[in-house]
Amino acid sequence: MVKSLLMDSRRAAGKDDFGRLLLRLAVGGLMLFHGLHKLFHGVDGISGMLVAKGLPGFVAYGVLVGEVVAPCLILLGILTRPSALVLAFTMVVAWLMVGTGKTFALDAVGAWAIESLVFYFMAALAIACLGAGRYALGSQSKWN
């Protein structure tokens, strides 16, 4: 009885493609909120930070690629692996811009100060390794 229960639970939980879809929906969907905010309200703050670090301000528009275009492609399952790598790179840049001083800090409620950056970075790497799975618009492509 225990063995059949374990086998049934394994069969029910062993839906790799559905798990990939859930991961893509969570990461792409949640990151898209960050990107849409920048799309609707502008990237002036990021541009100012870049200029303060000696970089050209127009580079700030790259955040729209990493936080709008890449998440949309991840959600749809089109060019999933490269899009996930773009998102991971975006998180590295975000950490370099605002997170290096917070790397060993906790926030006001005791959470790691850069945990959202690390979450998106690690989840994007997981998507890059796993691919989109069967439930994707580009499921036949080798890039998914």
Beta-strand portion reads under 5%
What's the number of extended β-strand segments?
Answer: 0
Instruction: Supply Rg.
Output: 18 Å
Count of discrete structural domains: 1
- Anisotropy-based shape: globular
Instruction: Give the % helix.
Output: 55-70%
- Termini separation: 40 Å
- Describe the oligomeric state of these chains in a short phrase: single chain
What is the tally of helical segments? 6
Spell out the helices and strands N to C.
HHHHHH
What is the overall pLDDT average?
Answer: 92
Largest sheet: none
Structural class: mainly alpha
Low-confidence stretches: none
Description:
By secondary structure, the chain is an all-alpha fold. The protein has one domain. 68% of the residues lie in helices and 0% in strands. Helix 2 (16-41) crosses helix 6 and helix 5 packs antiparallel against helix 6. The chain is globular, with a radius of gyration of 18 Å. The mean pLDDT is 92.
Defining key terms:
144 residues
